[in-house]
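User: Show me an example of a complex going from sequences to structure tokens.

Assistant: Sure. Here are the input components:
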Amino acid sequence: MDRNVYKSAFDNIEVSDKAVHEVIQKAAEISSPKRCRRKHRFGVPVPAVVLLSIMIITVSVSAATGLTDIFSRYFSQLFTTEDAEFDNYSTEFIEKNAAYDFAPYSQNGVTMSIEGIIGDRNFLLLKSKLTTEAGYDEGTLAAFMNPELYIGELKKGILPATCLSNTVDESRDPLVKSAAYLFNYDDVETLLGKTAAFDYDKETLSGKTATLVIKNSNAYEPVGIDLAEALKQSGEISIEGSDDPNALPLSKLSIPFSNDFRSSIVLKSVCFVNGKLVLVIDSSGYYENPSIYLRDKITNRIIYHCDGILSAGKGSLEFYAFDIGDTDKLENLEIVMPEEHHISFPLSFADNSKELDISGIDQSNIKGITVESVRISPLSLNIEGRIHDGTPIVAYKNCSIRFKDNSVVKYTANGYYHRKDGVYSTGVPFGKPLDTNLMDAVIIECDQSKLEIPIN
Amino acid sequence: MDTVDERADTVLKMIERYKNTVFRIAFAYCRNRSDADDIFQEVFLRYLKAKPEFSSEEHQKAWFVRVTVNCCKKHFLSSWYRKTMPIDEDISFETAEQSDLFYAVMDLPVKYRIVVHLYYYEGYKIKQIADMTRQKETTVATQLQRARQLLKARLKEELIYG
């Protein structure tokens, strides 16, 4: 293979100005220090926005966009769209069918109360109330708005469900927000050999423990380890030459991190190699491979960050290298990790989905797909079908529900996966709970042809 | 703490410097502009949030490459199975040779595409690719070897190993 030909070919691939423009807009919003408190009111401080708008122009990206437009687009991506907004029916549905009574969780002036949970074989919708007290921490509120969901025991290898949307309604009381998160936990079957966050075909969700993991990347907490002392205890191993993790000698340190649920992370060795501080950590008892940060104790600023390198030859140990240059600097450095909160609760609900009878449906008019099963729930439409030509993304692109009042609403599949040979499955989220009794038919469009499947 | 303008200025510099590196890796992974755009955004927003410190330009570039690869993997996890997603076909090439090679590489399985791109386009060594993709060196070497064999079969040409 000729490297030059390949390079020339790939030189034709360039990012579009539009994509650059969008990321700059988002960066501008995220850079705003006040974005969390007033995000629903488009209240980013003006000086920062003006400044950043000037910068957008200086990098010669496409035409300038009005500030209101920038804000609207930004917020519409992060939060609710018209479709996803909870109406009275959705709220009542959750209250009637999925009410959840669980002790509220409070941190830094922010309280999360889980009000209702509803789920089906693809999606789980969690409705909560976020209440803030005067002087609450904005970073904590932002973190509560973006939780990760894990189902089952938090242990190494567990995968989070994908958060498809988070909807936050502004109530009249600015200190109370109603939030809803739609998670997709059946979305992972990839060529990388991973598994789904939860496989509904094999197990039921009821009885499982769910954990919301809330990470506050604006606040860090120390893990209670004195680095200089740990290096001393480790024998002040200092090596010249190779910094290959497999060549490093290990001391017999065993210092657990002090914070609560992170106590299963253990510092096993500290050494100094070619000007780098190398921390050897065993996180086999922890649910993820941790990222480690070093903070300057005086300025409180994060100076170093490392995601770690898993050792090929030393079991589950991970190596974290920080180019600090000199061991004298250790006195002023401390290991910190982002502030994190866990809210665990038992799942207990019924899957309200039902399978539609398609045995008598004439499928001769629809092209490109043979539908094998259709399942509908208040949260989503699930279709399995055999794809003849083209790709599943085209075959499943246009799905609609016709309601009994003759209104038709189109929904978009957010993807599909290969369930078995030739059969592809898709879950089409509605974004909010709907009453299946008010639905008249499912309409699947493919290759300019339609298949209508009656409900009930 | 950096001021707002300092942080924004740094992000803009990074976008100018690494926009095509990031986008091309994402494209090599996803094979279409839409997904590559998403990953492109994710990488620079991660940079903004993480505010990493770099010891050198090489370290800086390696961070962007590694985060891009991680974002690509995450994208495949969070998206549904898109193995049959068509390759963007609105790309123009100067020569048929470029076009043939490009589409031959795009036809490779994703794990081979990424090592081929990092090796042949970005010029990284096998050890560096192993670090970035968190795989063993022997795994990367094997992937590169198998990718070459597949390309050889497809292109029916003598390969020049870089």
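The lines above are the inputs; the final block is the predicted structure for all two components together. Residues 17-31 of chain A form the longest helix (15 residues).
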